[in-house]
Amino acid sequence: MSLIIPDWPAPSRVRACSTSRHGGVSTAPWASLNLGSHVGDKPADVACNRQRLIELASLPAMPQWLEQVHKTDVVRLAHSGQDTPQADACITSETGVVCAVMTADCLPVLFCSADGSEVAAAHAGWRGLCDGVLENTLAQFRASPDQVHVWLGPAIGPDAFEVGEEVRSAFVTKDARAAVAFRPVGSKFYANIWLLAHQRLQAAGVRSVSTETRCTVSEHENFFSFRRDGVTGRMATLIWLL
User: Fold this and answer.
1) Are 238 and 112 contacting, i.e. CB atoms less than 8 angstroms apart?
2) CB 33 within 8 Å of CB 87
3) Which CATH architecture has domain 13-241?
4) What angle do CA 74, 193, 241 make, to 5 degrees?
């Protein structure tokens, strides 16, 4: 398994995928398809992995990588590009521009309009998710939320995502329905990040949500996990228009 292809009702001109940890040249603890240049891996290996990604996923261009900071800013991408924008989501309506986010437990989220005119990708750690990165991404679409398809990718699962009361309170304060996404375990909770995202999307008016419920923590052989390993690589989730 090198790539995960989303199973969702995207139009034919929309292409998307999510990488695993397989298919690259990096050595442990970044073995092997590490795409993150900020995690201590050899720059030459990361560059080789990114070039391999273009071939592996048949990308039309190198992804326009973001400097992700667990916030809610969304940048609109064009062919001209820019110097690594600081944002946690990106959107484009231009053919051949590759939107990408990197994760290693956080939730990658892909969006496409039902008419195939716009696509977007968002990085949803718990802070960004709680503060509205998904809603901010939807707000950039010309289409209304009920005309946008969303795919939730592999992330830390509900049997591994242990959080404190402060995380639960942050979500529940904004939406009481979020309480069902937290399962108490002693003085802590296990959080279901897919359910939290689905709740937010539903409240925003999205009707089409597909989910890849694979846990990055438990599938050591397939995924990087910061929660599990600390020093590790990063996967990418990508979307573009033909």
Assistant:
1) no
2) no
3) 4-Layer Sandwich (3.60)
4) 40
